[in-house]
Predict the 3D structure of the following.
Amino acid sequence: ITLLVSKAKGGIERMLTMEQIYLIKYLRNHKGKSLRKIAKETGHDFETVKKYVEKNDFNLYPRPKQKRNGKQTPSLQTHCILPKVQSSSMPVTFLKRPALAAVWS
């Protein structure tokens, strides 16, 4: 039995079709052939044959989305809450960022 294997640019093999997978499973489970003989007959790599013989679930599951804070959401780790200090104890010129000057005054 000879099968055509479609290859992408660079010689990288694409995923097998379900027909090819069923043939590999049939040869292993019903004909009792070894993985190396199946690989030689079908023209696939030994590791590819092994992967599809051991695989039972072919459904694709979506990865869970990573939860991120938006740009406008303040993060507790990056912002600190400054204590309310009387303007007479610390001059406003001490602060480097003018946006925080309102907190100190």
In short: The mean pLDDT is 74.
